Amino acid sequence: MTRFTYFLVAIGAMAGLVTLSAPAPGHADDQPAAPFVTEIPHGYRDWQWISSAHEAGNLNSLGAVLGNDVAINAFRKGTLPFPDGAIIAALHYRHVPSDENNKVFGQAQSFVPGPPTNIQFMVKDSTKYAATGGWGFGHFGTDGKPGDAAFMKSCFPCHEKAKVTDLVFTRYAR
Amino acid sequence: MTRFTYFLVAIGAMAGLVTLSAPAPGHADDQPAAPFVTEIPHGYRDWQWISSAHEAGNLNSLGAVLGNDVAINAFRKGTLPFPDGAIIAALHYRHVPSDENNKVFGQAQSFVPGPPTNIQFMVKDSTKYAATGGWGFGHFGTDGKPGDAAFMKSCFPCHEKAKVTDLVFTRYAR
């Protein structure tokens, strides 16, 4: 497998973090495509920490979920649905052993974020993204390019399963 | 095993995140004990995200490392040693499966932070903590109480092994 193929496979696998299952049927082809997030929100790396996430198996991912001020306030107060302006960012990395830490531990037990795989966003705008539950979904590979329209169609049907928490799977770690 | 015993075992296990190995001999008993951090630094939950960490095995921990502005700036610029005023916080939780996510995935692969176990700090003050490499170490159980002096003696001998990065094991996730 070439490095490039491997990269595409990795990105594809990580996409499961949004889809969480095989893509469900989207809109019929004669309907306009629902909009999705096409630009990386500014300053997301400075946002506060909501939680960490480890996905074993094929995803093999270790990452963090961060939120802008609107999202963080809503998480802390338990505000549902999330207000317009809330943005949630999921930063994904390969889940790799830390040789350095394991040497000190004397055994293989320490795992850290390895190479980044993708960044995903949920942007709340109940008008712009009315067709997808008020959330705009975003997925950006390490090249900074957004997922294409066909791919992005798979986000909403899966997140819809978390209706009771306004389509958000992540819980705030206290 | 009673719940309380279990709690103590969990705290003891998590302590390994600081010690990373069996406690090495500390100072001779006729020397004054090195100071350590006895109060939880204010506002740490609002700090920015440095990285996530998964410790398998007995520790069974999933958490996040956060930093105050001084620490974050140093991490981003690669400033070594860390300047006085830098504080690094490690928030530790049990590494537990997310039944909710796994139901959507259709398989057991999703792990999230469970109950908190402890919070650990490294506070840079090259005068106050000169005896321990310029860092004050802190460990607080879920009751908010600091580790005792005997316990805290084990932090520095282990962190000293990361001398090349000023006693800090965690890398900034980009």
Characterization of this structure:
Chain A has 174 residues and is α+β, with helices and mostly antiparallel strands. Chain A has one domain: 3-Layer(bba) Sandwich (Chalcone isomerase). In chain A, 24% of the residues lie in helices and 28% in strands. A 5-stranded antiparallel sheet of chain A has the order 1-2-3-4-5. In chain A, strand 1 and strand 2 form a beta hairpin. The N terminus of chain A is likely disordered. Chains A and B meet through strand 1, strand 2, strand 3, helix 4 and strand 4 of A and strand 1, strand 2, strand 3, helix 4 and strand 4 of B. Strand 1 of chain A pairs antiparallel with strand 4 of chain B, so a sheet runs across the interface.
Counting DSSP E segments of at least 2 residues, the number of strands of chain A comes to 5
The low-confidence runs of chain A, each spanning 5 or more residues with pLDDT under 50, are 1-28
Largest interface here, residues on each chain? Answer: A-B, 46 and 46 residues
The CATH architecture designation of chain A is 3-Layer(bba) Sandwich
How does the major sheet of chain A shape up? 5 strands, antiparallel
Radius of gyration computed on alpha carbons of chain A = 17 Å
Major sheet strand order of chain A: 1-2-3-4-5
Into which percentage range does the β-strand content of chain A fall? Answer: 25-35%
If you consult CATH, what is the topology of chain A? Chalcone isomerase
**Subunit organisation of the chains:** homodimer
Structural class of chain A: alpha+beta
Question: Mean pLDDT of chain A, rounded to whole units?
Answer: 86
Overall helicity of chain A: 10-25%
Count of helical stretches of chain A: 6
The sequence of SSEs of chain A as H and E is HHEEHEHEEHH
Distance N to C terminus of chain A = 42 Å
CATH class of chain A: Alpha Beta
Number of domains of chain A: 1
What's the overall geometry of chain A?
Answer: globular
